[in-house]
Amino acid sequence: MEILVNGTPHLIAEGTTVAQLLVILDLQGKRLAMEVNQELVPRSQFDNVILQPQDTVEIVHAIGGG
Asked: Gene3D superfamilies in the record, alphabetically (predicted)?
């Protein structure tokens, strides 16, 4: 199925969770925030949120500094 990640189409398997998407994108363990269809997904829910066809995912990396 196709989803959009930061505006770029990606083909993933049906039933893919947000956590699995991070593995696919090689982003697991990184400090980031994620929205699915403009709704923030808490990190505690990454294993529970199953992506659907045509979902729009936005991933923002946290950058420290000062």
From this structure: 3.10.20.30
Residue 11 has what DSSP assignment?
Answer: E
User: For 4-52, how does the pLDDT look when each residue is reduced to its tens digit (9 = 90+)?
Assistant: 999 999 999 999 999 999 999 999 988 999 999 999 999 999 999 999 9
Spell out the residues 6+ positions from residue 58 whose beta carbon is closer than 8 angstroms to its own.
5, 6, 34, 35, 38
- Which domains are present in the chain? 2-61 (3.10.20.30)
Segment holding 21, helix H or strand E: helix 18-24
Tokens of 23: 């593995």
CA distances from 50 to 1, 63, 66 (A): 12, 27, 36
